[in-house]
Structures are given as C-alpha cells and as structure tokens.
Amino acid sequence: MPELEEILDYRDQYVIPLLDYDSKHNVSLLQTLNQYFKHNRNIKKTSAALFTHYNTVTYRIERACELLNLNSDDGDDMLELQLALKLHEMRPYDKQRNPQNRR
Asked: Is it true that domain 4-88 has CATH number 1.10.10.2840?
C-alpha cells in the first residue's frame, strides 16, 4: 500500500487543476464530475441532478478531460479520475499541506 503522501499526491494531480480552473472561471468541473460518476457516467441523469443543460454537462466533462489530459472514452483514464475524486471526498485537498507544490 502506498504511503499517505503518495496517495495525496495522486489525488492532487487530478484535483488541483480542477479546483484552480473552477475558481478562475467560476464553473463547477469538480462538482460535475462527482455527479457524473455518481450517476454511472450518464450525462442525462447528471444534467438532471445538476439542473444544468445536457450540452453544458458534456462541455464540462470534455473540458475537465482536456485539462487533465485524459480520454473520456478510455476506461482506465476514467477509473483513475474517479479514484482521485473518491480520495478527495475522503480527504479533501488542503492548500496548507504543501502550498509551494501546487501544480
């Protein structure tokens, strides 16, 4: 089992770019992805849960994957992202932990 620091670094490589983008552009990529995975990658159900247009949800998912250099059609890429989001749920990112190492 990896050490805690390695686990947090793994989480941060996915979560930090999303949090930064969300705060700079006043969007909700992280929330959208969480709902997307909660609804088994069903965009229609995700858009209903977020009260957001289907095309907006599609754009956010595509933008997040582009930002993280992931392929939304690659199951391994999506599993890695979902794992990072689950780790973030269990232990949210803390800017104070390593502010100089933000990616």
From this structure: yes
